[in-house]
Amino acid sequence: MAEINKIREEMRNSLQFKLGNVTRLVFKKMNSALISEGIPVQAEQIPILMVVYFKEDNITQQDIANVLQKDKAGIQRSVQTLSKDGFLKIESDIEDKRKNLISVTASGKFVCEKIQALAIAFHRQIMEYYTEEEQKTLLSLLNRMEGIIEKVNV
After folding, report:
1. What pLDDT is recorded for position 21?
2. Rounded to whole angstroms, how far apart are CA atoms 66 and 57?
3. Within 10 A of 129 (CB to CB), how many other CB atoms are there?
4. Rounded to whole angstroms, how far apart are CA atoms 87 and 112?
5. Domains of the chain
6. Rounded to whole angstroms, how far apart are CA atoms 109 and 120?
7. Is the model's pLDDT at 2 over the cut of 90?
8. What is the dihedral of CA 14, 75, 118, 53, to 10 degrees?
9. Whether the Cβ atoms of residue 93 and residue 59 lie closer than 8 Å to each other
10. What is the DSSP string of 37-96?
C-alpha cells in the first residue's frame, strides 16, 4: 500500500499532472471571462481563431492543424462551429477543390481583439502575484522547458 501511495504522490507532482491542472484552470477561468463578456467562444477554440486572425492571408485547415499540432478532424469541427457563429469564413480553394481556405470575418476580428484584451488582463492579474524577477524566471523556465520537451524521446 505504501508503494501505491508513493506512486500516486509522484504522479500528483509530475510535470504532466501539474501542467495539465494549470491548463485546465486557465481554460476554466478564460471560459468564465468569455461568458461574462458575452463572447460565444470556448477557450479551446481561441488558438484556432488566433492562428487565422494573425495570418496575413487565407490559411487551410491543414495549415491550422500543423501550426497547432492537432488532428485535422478536430480542427475541422472547430472551424465549422466558428464559421456557423460568424467568426470564420470557409471558401473552397480555386486551385484545389479538396482544400478549404479559412479567413476571419469582421465579427471574428472584433472578437479576437476582445479576447486579446481579456487574455492580457488575465496574464497581468496572475503575474501580480510574482515579483519581476520571479516573472522573468518563470517565463524563462517555461521557454527552456519547451525546448527540452521537443528534444526528449519518450
Report:
1. 94
2. 16
3. 8
4. 9
5. 41-151 (1.10.10.10)
6. 16
7. no
8. 130
9. no
10. TT----GGGHHHHHHHHH-SS-EEHHHHHHHHT--HHHHHHHHHHHHHTTSEEEEE-SS-
CB 45 within 8 A of CB 115: no
pTM of the model as a whole = 0.81
Sign of torsion over alpha carbons 135, 140, 145, 146: positive
10-14, 33-37, 92-96: least confident range: 92-96
**Residue labelled with grid coordinates 477557450:** 43
> What would the pLDDT profile of 48-107 be if each residue is shown by its tens digit?
999 999 997 889 999 999 999 999 888 999 999 999 999 999 998 788 777 889 999 999
Sort 14 into a burial class: Cβ within 10 Å, 0-12 / 13-18 / 19+. exposed
pLDDT at 145: 94
CA-to-CA separations, 20 to 46, 103, 116, in angstroms, rounded: 18, 31, 22
* DSSP β-bridge partners for residue 88: 104
